[in-house]
């Protein structure tokens, strides 16, 4: 995997209206890159654009739902028209969560989580390959999660989508290495963003965790260095190591924690 300087690059960022995606788009533009920001909320993208009006790079946006095939095609058409078909960096960051036991969830929730977190990203990658092949140092950055390595109760659907992204990225990295296209997997731990307020089920307020700005700067460094993957916290790294080397013990600990959580919830 090669290293590159993130300056003057043409970058597409999904989920750029809040949290990690917004922070990545902002840092990229301040670093002199040209960003096409994607998300559904236009007012947020407009606000970001005006915040960055004086920056060295530029930010343009296309609003839409990343799960729509027509929308993804319009992104590819935009790259063709405005960047002569060349894309240097694709950041697949848009994501949603679902927090409740599988038995209490439903088919629609599972499909939504998989559509946004997995199928939409793969659809965009498929369409972007032709554009990335025209770049001198192309890279795909997929934002997954520590929960794409270690499974947590009450987050089974979310874990399924992130495990899928993890496995897919590892396989794709090897396939695309033959063409010189890097695949960087970013696996954040709990991050302060709107994520917990906008989960499909089980929304809550989250005040703990790393700032989205810090996650974004780690992710951009990983892209610059051409790292295969970054795990963004000590706790996250410990969980992944425990899952790899002591899976039975970790399951017992998680069961104890989950039972305790269910009991305290039933007492509330
Ligand atoms: N926060 C955490 O603790 C955490 C931890 C590990 C991994 N992650 C991952 O990090 C990524 C970013 O999450 P975040 O924490 O920054 O959450 P966030 O603040 O809720 O941002 C999510 C972004 O995704 C976009 N999005 C959601 N559904 C979309 C759709 N159907 N079409 C287009 N855009 C859509 C949202 O934009 P619109 O609503 O405007 O469309 C928003 O910009 C996600 O993949 C998440 O799974 C987060």
Topology:
Layout: E1 10-14, H1 19-30, E2 34-39, H2 42-51, E3 58-63, H3 69-82, E4 89-92, H4 107-132, E5 139-143, H5 156-177, E6 182-187, E7 191-192, E8 210-211, H6 212-225, E9 229-231, H7 234-245, H8 247-267
Parallel strand pairs: 1-2, 1-4, 2-3, 4-5, 5-6, 6-9, 7-8
Bound molecules: NADP nicotinamide-adenine-dinucleotide phosphate.
Could you characterize the architecture of this molecule?
- α4 (107-132) runs parallel beside α5 (156-177).
- This protein has helices at residues 19-30, 42-51, 69-82, 107-132, 156-177, 212-225, 234-245, 247-267, and strands at residues 10-14, 34-39, 58-63, 89-92, 139-143, 182-187, 191-192, 210-211, 229-231.
- The protein is 49% helix and 15% strand.
- The strands form 2 sheets. Strands 3-2-1-4-5-6-9 form a 7-stranded parallel β-sheet, with helices on both faces. A two-stranded parallel ribbon has the order 7-8.
- The mean pLDDT is 95.
- β1, α1 (19-30) and β2 (34-39) form a beta-alpha-beta unit.
- The chain has 8 helices and 9 strands.
- It is of the alpha/beta class.
- Residues 15-21, 39-41, 44, 65-67, 93-96, 116, 143, 145, 188, 190-191, 193-195, 198, 209, 212 line the site of NADP nicotinamide-adenine-dinucleotide phosphate.
């Amino acid at each position: 995997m090669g290293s590159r300087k993130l300056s003057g690059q043409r970058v597409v960022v999904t989920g750029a209206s809040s949290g990690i995606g917004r922070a990545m788009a902002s840092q990229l533009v301040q670093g002199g890159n040209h960003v096409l920001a994607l998300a559904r909320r236009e007012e947020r993208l407009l606000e970001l654009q005006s915040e960055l009006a004086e920056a060295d790079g530029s930010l343009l946006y296309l609003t839409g739902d990343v799960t729509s095939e027509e929308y993804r095609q319009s992104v590819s058409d935009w790259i063709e028209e405005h960047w002569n078909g060349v894309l240097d960096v694709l950041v697949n960051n848009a994501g949603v969560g679902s927090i409740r036991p599988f038995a209490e969830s439903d088919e629609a929730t599972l499909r939504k989580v998989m559509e946004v977190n997995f199928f939409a990203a793969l659809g965009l990658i498929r369409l972007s390959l032709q554009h990335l092949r025209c770049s001198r140092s192309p890279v795909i950055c997929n934002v997954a999660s520590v929960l794409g390595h270690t499974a947590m109760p009450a987050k089974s659907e979310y874990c399924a989508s992130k495990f899928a992204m993890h496995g897919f990225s590892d396989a794709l990295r090897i396939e695309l290495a033959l063409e010189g296209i890097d695949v960087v997997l970013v696996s954040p731990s709990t991050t302060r963003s709107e994520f917990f307020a906008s989960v499909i089920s089980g929304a809550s307020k989250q005040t703990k965790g790393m700032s989205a700005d810090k996650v974004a700067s780690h992710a951009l460094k990983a892209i610059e260095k051409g790292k295969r993957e970054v795990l963004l916290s000590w706790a996250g790294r410990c969980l992944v190591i425990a899952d790899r080397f002591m899976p039975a013990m970790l399951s017992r600990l998680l069961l104890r924690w989950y039972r305790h959580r269910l009991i305290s919830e039933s007492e509330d």
